[in-house]
């Protein structure tokens, strides 16, 4: 604004000087000199002003260039601002997504914590149950061990009782066989000591042989003695079978011997009876017709005179 005012003043001074020079005409030298000094000043002012104008034009050009640069920078900044705003919007979207994910993660974390507490309680409960089960298992093992020990003890006791019973029965059988042998020996000795040789021949030849007219009674007695020997042999065979059954294992019974189950059942129900050999001998004496004869009476008498030969010997049998 100040430059325009000075430019206007300079133009007005030039115009005034030109109009005054043409209007007055020729003047004196003093007047010309007076007029030249302002003109020189004006020329100097004009030169300075033109220099200032040139400088101002250059300044304007530089300012225009600066303006263009500033505008370019503004455009770049505007573009950068737009990019920044776009990035901010994207960041806002990511932030919102992150917030939503955070909420979901918090929800999942809450459920996981609840599940963890539930599993911890379940694990504690299972641990208690496991300890209880282990205690029960230990108790059951102790009970089972006690039961097995009791069963073994009972089996040992049963086997010992069975062994003792078998030994006792074997001993009684041996005694009975010895007694029978003594009785048979005495009977044969008695028959052979009688007068006449037909009794010996009848005893060696078998029972139920009829003697001649001379030795009828002796032959009949010899035949009865032979029948008694055969009966005693059968009785000994029965005792041998029973002895074999007693000596065999429980799972392999001998032929003709009672099964171990029958022996156990008989022992369990009290069917194992004990009878006196004396009463058995007396019963046989009542039933056997051979003992009613005069030749067999000394055998019974000898058995009564020697009670040490198993007179009261007990023999087991099954009712």
From TrEMBL:
Please list the residue ranges that the record marks as compositionally biased, kind Basic and acidic residues: 68-89
Which region ranges are annotated with the description Disordered? 1-34, 67-89, 199-232
Keywords carried by this UniProt record: Coiled coil
What do the Gene Ontology cellular component annotations say? Answer: cis-Golgi network
Q: Which domain of life is it from?
A: Eukaryota
- What segments bear the compositional bias annotation Low complexity? 222-231
Pfam families for this protein? GM130_C
Under InterPro entries, the record lists: GOLGA (IPR024858), GOLGA_C (IPR043937)
Q: Where is the composition biased (Gly residues)?
A: 204-216
Protein name as it appears in the record: Golgin subfamily A conserved domain-containing protein
